[in-house]
Structures are given as C-alpha cells and as structure tokens.
Amino acid sequence: MSFISTSDLVKFDQNFATDVEAGLSLDPKKLSSKYFYDKKGDELFQAIMRMPEYYLTDCEYSILNRQKADILEAIGPSGFELIELGAGDGYKTKVLLEHFLSREVPFVYRPVDISQNVLEVLRNDLKNRWPDLAVRPLKGDYFAMLERLQSEQGQRKVVLFLGANIGNYTRQEALRFLENLHKQLDPGDQLLIGFDLKKDPSVILNAYNDPAGITAAFNLNLLTRINRELGGHFDLEEFSHWETYQPITGEAKSYLISRKEQEVEIEAIGKTFHFGAWEAIDVELSLKYSPFEIEALARAAGFQVVEHFYDDRSYFLDSLWEVK
Ligand code: AVI
C-alpha cells in the first residue's frame, strides 16, 4: 500500500504506521529492522551480501558446500520435509538441495516466506534446475505454517533457519522464538540454525560499516520508505548511519543519527516528531554469539545439540539441533 497525499483515498499499512508512531515516541527512539525489506531494501540487502566486508554469506555458503555430506549424515538417510524459514532466493540452500538429490534422499522442499513473489520466483528457478525436485511452498507467517504442517502429520521435519537471522532478535526474543518452534516440532525433528560468532571486533564493525556506504543506504532506506508509504518528511541528508559493536554482549547495533535539531511530520500518523541534535534512532540489532551461548540457548529452548559445523576461520556456525 502506498501513501498518495494528492488523493482523497490515502491508503497505507496500518501496522507499519502504528509501529513507527510507537517507536518514534519512545526514548530512546526505535524502529524495527523488519521494515528494511521493501523492494529497494531487498536489492540493497542483496548488494550487502555481495560486499567483501560482509563475510557472513560466504562463510555460511562454504560451511554448507564443504560439509554437505557431514550435514546429511547427521540428519540421517530417512525421508523428511525440509522446511526453510525465510527462504529468499535459496542461494545457499541450493547446495544442500543438489547434494540431497544426488544422494537420492527422499525429501520434499518446503520454503516458507510471506512473499508470494519470492516463492514463485524460487519455485520456477528450482523447477528449471531440477524438474524432479518436489517443491511445496508455504506462503505465510512462520508459525502459522508450522502449525499447518503439524496438523498434516507428514514425515519428520528438518527446519532450516539460516543466514544468522536469529541475530536480529534480542536474546529474550530469540529464546521465545525457539521455544515456540520447539512446540511445533515432534521428537526426532531437527533444526539447522545459522549463528554469526563473536570474533575480532574490527571484522564485525567493517561488515556493518562498509566504506562504499551500502549498509548506510540500506538503513536510511527505512526513512525513504516512511516518506513514501506514510507521507513522512524526513530529509535524508540530515540523518547518518552509525554502527557500534559491544564485544562483551556481542551486540552489533545500527543507529540513524539526526545531524541537527529538527521536526519531522508524518502525515499518515498525523503527528510531528521532534529530534534533538545528534539524537539516535535504534534501527537494528545483529547479535553475535559464542558457541557456549549457543549451546545454552539450545538447551533453554528444549533442544539437544547434535553437531556444530564451522567455517575455516570459525567466523560462523551452523548448528544442528534435535527435539528429544
Ligand atoms: C538479515 N540479517 C541477518 C542481516 C544482519 O547481518 O543482521 C541484516 C543486515 N543488516 C546490515 N547488514 C546486514
């Protein structure tokens, strides 16, 4: 939905407006990074994943590519439904799909995404590559889809949650998310989950503070989205991107900083928000974990760790968990 200020009919996403109003009324101000991903945001995130500084994608790709045989051995040879939460373009997952097909493993790939478009593009791509691969996409919210699968009483489930997406949740949110996931699974079901690990802080800072300014453009695009969809009046020149990394907590945090004292009207909300000079909006958390913290999280959510798969530099970890 877009904001059309010239029309009598002003359409906009009410949830987005409500969240923006609540977040900009907080002290300190906060906007959710889940709103980064409009069409432009998706393109910028693709560009981030191709940046040399953003090591996460290459690390996880190399884990899946080099250790696909070990991963399959740990999953076991009996048939399963491979459910991927937030499938995207499936770039990394295709490595596993190809390997499982070559080993003639009986499995069905079930990508879950809220975007019908993402699922259609992925399904067509996979059909062209591997006509024999069984693909049954699920369009909707992760938990609604898992609930549906549970009621279908199908084969055992192997869930993929890759890309360090768990890092965009606080520790408490991550635990709640994993506890909910555990409730939707049965004994013997598994989860392969990607975590970005604590490492040299300068490596982490560079990944979110690239000299080309792609991450800055990705974060600032949130203000462009508010301008377009909610009739916001943010002047992008007057905000800048700022990144921090706290090596004890593992929190990489992105902020948008107001470069001067200013008032910004958002028409769809019917309010003007005040920004002090150098006031920050908290826009994203990318949490980094230690292997010890990952094991504690698995146990707290009710899972048993089966095996850890690291890249060569131990920058990233795909961890296989099982419901007992
Ligand atoms: C999607 N998520 C895991 C990315 C991350 O690393 O937190 C999003 C991102 N933000 C800036 N760069 C990448």
UniProtKB/TrEMBL annotation:
<dbReference type="GO" id="GO:0032259">
    <property type="term" value="P:methylation"/>
</dbReference>
<dbReference type="GO" id="GO:0008168">
    <property type="term" value="F:methyltransferase activity"/>
</dbReference>
<dbReference type="Pfam" id="PF10017">
    <property type="entry name" value="Methyltransf_33"/>
</dbReference>
<dbReference type="InterPro" id="IPR051128">
    <property type="entry name" value="EgtD_Methyltrsf_superfamily"/>
</dbReference>
<dbReference type="InterPro" id="IPR035094">
    <property type="entry name" value="EgtD"/>
</dbReference>
<keyword id="KW-0808">Transferase</keyword>
<dbReference type="InterPro" id="IPR017804">
    <property type="entry name" value="MeTrfase_EgtD-like"/>
</dbReference>
<protein>
    <submittedName>
        <fullName>L-histidine N(Alpha)-methyltransferase</fullName>
    </submittedName>
</protein>
<dbReference type="InterPro" id="IPR029063">
    <property type="entry name" value="SAM-dependent_MTases_sf"/>
</dbReference>
<dbReference type="InterPro" id="IPR019257">
    <property type="entry name" value="MeTrfase_dom"/>
</dbReference>
<keyword id="KW-0489">Methyltransferase</keyword>
<feature type="domain" description="Histidine-specific methyltransferase SAM-dependent">
    <location>
        <begin position="16"/>
        <end position="322"/>
    </location>
</feature>
